[in-house]
Amino acid sequence: MTTFLKAGLSVMAAALLAACGNSKTAAPDKPDSSGQQSAPVTQAAKPAGLQLKDDQLNAVYLQYQQLSAALINGDEAAARIAANAIEAGAKGISGAEKLVSTAAGIMAAPHLDAQRTAYATLSNDLITLVKKSGISSGSLYIDYCPMALNDKGGYWLSNDSGIKNPYFGDKMLTCGEVKETIQ
């Protein structure tokens, strides 16, 4: 029974994340049963040529990209939505318990600075999982900003070698450097 339940949850999580395969926003086309329009669904863009070996982790990474973009843009609401998707997708990944709890922390964070602080932990956990899983194709960059988190420094993953800093957004968009490339 437990195996069946776990398999069912994994399939549901994978289906939820698989539905997020492009960068378009689905337009609400019909009112729901209460007569109200449903909210648009944000879907993650798949980076060209990048594929992690673990499909579930790949789906989580796609949502991580959305989270990074939201923090770069200073959009707390979009960060919460992406963190919610990360939490749901990571529940089916072995060894991702910290990722799940940190994503929940981002959703509950009272302001953007708290989201960015939790993002540092989430990024470190995701980097560990990605290194363990490996990449089938493409490259990921581990970026670092020494000024993040009150000069403690913070890492993040990117599929672009150019720096776009999620810790400072437009205040210091290009602060940081590529520390490592995962291939």
UniProtKB/TrEMBL annotation:
UniProt keyword annotations, A-Z: Signal
Signal peptide interval: 1-26
Protein name in the entry: DUF3347 domain-containing protein
Xref: InterPro entries: DUF3347
Stored Pfam families: DUF3347 (PF11827)
Region (Disordered): 25-45
DUF3347 domain: residues covered: 60-137
